[in-house]
């Protein structure tokens, strides 16, 4: 594989950074964006393009896409990570906090896809992978705004697949369970059939697969990578 380009939004640390490293190792030229500046530093290490900005800003995302296109002229893969939204007892979550949760966990994807999908349609191919959560199908009270917003993301990926599969542009969600970039506790670990936390590298490998030609017939899916944690069929 040569001359393929991957954009990672929210790639400064954790699963996003691991995805950037894996895609670079697989031969992609990588563009990495984060709000912290860590994405810019990582991109420099990987010989790619770094940009500091927010995935809650249409202007920042537009500039990031423009810089990527100016440098390489194409976008073959887009990885959308997210930050952390509000958490509180359900009836104590304010209107503002619900809106923030939607911004963090759903609109981050909508904004980036709105800009990148037309590029992929024009070049007759591309893959988008969104980092979601294993709890999207079995909502947990510990992640209320995430569970609600990402249920919407599960619907969005289906709507996108219906419309853009004919253009050879694919979108899938990765659903991580307890991953080592999160605080570890014995109680959480013993609740996982595999009896361990997953690694950011395992999520990155799944992302890289879904972006690859090996996954060319996979779109509109939400793939659990959770060590067997979720029991829903």
UniProtKB/TrEMBL annotation:
InterPro entries for the chain: NAD(P)-bd_dom_sf, SDR, SDR_fam
Originating organism: Aminobacter carboxidus
Name of this protein: SDR family oxidoreductase
Family (UniProt): Belongs to the short-chain dehydrogenases/reductases (SDR) family.
Pfam families with a match to the protein in the record: adh_short_C2
PANTHER family: 3-OXOACYL-(ACYL-CARRIER-PROTEIN) REDUCTASE, NADPH-DEPENDENT REDUCTASE BACG
Record-linked Gene3D superfamilies: NAD(P)-binding Rossmann-like Domain (3.40.50.720)
